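Here is an idea for our session: we take a single protein and study its fold together. Once you have written the record down, we can walk along the chain together.
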Amino acid sequence: MGSRQSRVVQPEAPTKEEDGGFTVSVTPGLVSSLQKGSNSGGVGQGPAGRPEVVTTKEEAEEVAAAYRNGLKDAEANLRHHLVTQKEQWTQELLEREARLAEYISVAAADFKSRKFVPPSRPIACEEEAEQMVACYREKGGKEGGKEGGVVKGCNGLVDLYEKCARKVVQGLEVRQ
């Protein structure tokens, strides 16, 4: 009915070349110890199924010394790695700082080299202002000593300038 095979197919036993060059032999003792389970206290096992380890005081001291040496080596390797990493990060940050300083100095020089020129537009009432100032210069030199000479001589031009300025201000107020 389906595409699966209903009978059990046993794979062929691997040869020494296929399996890395070794084979496993199953002995009756291994089979019986596996059938008894891990809590049965089989050969080479201590209480509660744990491996039995027999050591002397000297062996325990050697293991402890080896552990301490390994710990010291690991700590030294970690310190070396951290120092190397810190030096690398420091170098990268210094390079980045130099790049940013260069960028900022170029941008600042570019900014300083530019001159601000405001947008040009015609000055309102320029003609009237020039006539009024010319009148003050002319009358101020001749009639400066006489009482009211400058004021009386230029008041018509001042009125013209004032009217023009009011028109400009009213025009600005309307635009807003």
Observations:
- The chain has a mean pLDDT of 77.
- The longest helix spans residues 57-113.
- Helices lie at 28-36, 57-113, 126-142, 149-175.
